[in-house]
């Protein structure tokens, strides 16, 4: 199982709407607003690493009100 943590910056005041939209993406397993350098943290899982990458690029990074992302991909076997 491929796991990725996506740190998200969004437009000011749009955190709740972005969080709600993220909840409708199948691969998103957890999503939470954060304090600090990033506004939102999303945990994603998929059986295929390539599909996970595609979901991040085409479903998250293209989402309205998202300004930037930083993706951390977990190393399989180190959990």
TrEMBL record:
Domain Transcription regulator AsnC/Lrp ligand binding: 6-73
Gene3D superfamilies linked to this entry: 3.30.70.920
Superkingdom to which the source organism belongs: Archaea
Full protein name: Transcriptional regulator
The organism of origin for this protein: Nitrosarchaeum koreense MY1
């Amino acid at each position: 199982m491929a796991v990725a943590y996506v740190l998200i910056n969004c437009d000011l005041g749009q955190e709740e709407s972005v969080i709600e939209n993220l909840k409708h993406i199948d691969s998103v397993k957890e999503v939470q607003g954060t304090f600090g350098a990033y506004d939102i943290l999303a945990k994603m899982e998929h059986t295929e690493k390539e599909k996970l990458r595609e979901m991040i690029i085409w479903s998250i990074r293209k989402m309205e009100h998202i300004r930037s992302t930083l993706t951390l991909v977990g190393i399989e076997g180190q959990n």
